Amino acid sequence: MRALVFHGPNRMELEEVPVPEPGPEEILVKVGACLICGTDLRILRGKKTKGVRVPSILGHEFAGTVVAAGPNVGEFRTGDRVGVAPVIPCHTCAYCKNGRENVCANRTALGYEYDGAFAEYVRIPAAAVRGGNVYRLPADLPFEAAALAEPLACCVNGQRNSRIGLGDVVVVLGAGPIGLMHIALAKAAGASLVIVSEPNDQRRSAALELGADLAVNPKTENLGDLVKEATGGLGADAVILAIGIPTLAEQALTLARKGGSVNFFAGFSVGDVASLDVNLIHYNELKITGTSAARREDYGLALQLIAKRLVDARRIVTHRFSLTHGPEAFKFAESGQGIKVAILP
Ligand SMILES: [Zn+2]
Ligand SMILES: [Zn+2]
Asked: Rounded to the nearest whole angstrom, what is the distance from the C-alpha of residue 149 to the centroid of ligand 1?
């Protein structure tokens, strides 16, 4: 089969590799769509190294069709259309036992420890099949829309940490794919006002299409003043940092009202540090949270939200490339044109 093989920073090649064989309790999925994630770009550029093997096949946001099942696979049959939650928890560590399987101490993931889906086929390991990571797709849900369930699941987790609810004022910093999904989720959760800050014109208009009430260009407008103005001087109930820029972490604290929350959703580059005015946290009683990956239940919910169009995948997955044009797809995704890029093997 053809696959995009990662050989280390800045080295990814389209190669012919053997089709993986499904072992006991494993299934083989023919990839229908695999989306390029910001994390894949960070791995390709050497900015993320933890859990990454060389050589390996990346790609953790995917959906496809079961084409083979190993011995003792009860639940899935050839022809089933499935999406897979890529984080495989151990189910026994202290975190798993306390409802935090997304930060499982022994977690492994497809696209990291196991080969991912920038390939024609992907083998789903027994631990994932047995552990309930494989979801049958709602009828008629296109693969590229279903593949969005993984990053959306992470956003669902982030929104839960932010406790966004009815009537809230939410500020989202960055309107890349993640920021856009946060906007859609905040609106679905009942936020009364969603303000987004994003320098890219195309992304600001996408943000407005997905339900943002105000799209600010931080290069030409003063975000802090606009948030104050829109909230009677109070600030936002929730601020979500949807892009990993340390100076924005600093700014995020200034945008929240007293008792408000700030979620550091985006990952930063290894070694990044930010200087925070800690008195803002102290005097304003801010709730600071982070977000890492997603639970299986978040994935299931994300699939439903996409199928019911509460999050419109068609506005988020904007470009498609074949596997053969994988390297161009990565360059395109990095250029910031388009929003979410799909590879359709
Ligand atoms: Zn991802
Ligand atoms: Zn665990």
From this structure: 10
Ligand 1 centre distance from Cα of residue 111 (Å)? 9
Sign for the CA dihedral angle at 133, 136, 138, 142 comes to positive
- Model confidence over 270-287: pLDDT tens digits? 889 999 999 999 999 999
pLDDT tens across 172-195, in order? 999 999 999 999 999 999 999 999
- Report the C-alpha gap between 317 and 177 in whole angstroms: 8
| Residue 234 CA to ligand 1 centre (angstroms) | 34
Task: Find the domain containing 241 and state its range.
Answer: 153-290
Confirm whether 305 is domain-assigned: no
User: What's the gap in Å between 87 CA and the centre of ligand 2?
Assistant: 11
Burial profile 134-166: b = 16 or more Cβ within 10 angstroms, e = fewer: bbebeeebbbbbbbbbbbbbbbbbbbbbbebee
- How confident is the prediction for the chain on average, in pLDDT? 96
Domain match, 129 and 167 both? no
* Total tally of structural domains belonging to the chain: 2
Retrieve residue 285's tokens. 């009683």
| Residue-wise pLDDT tens digits, 243-302 | 999 999 999 999 999 999 999 999 888 889 999 999 999 999 999 999 999 999 999 999
Residues 125 and 188 in one domain: no
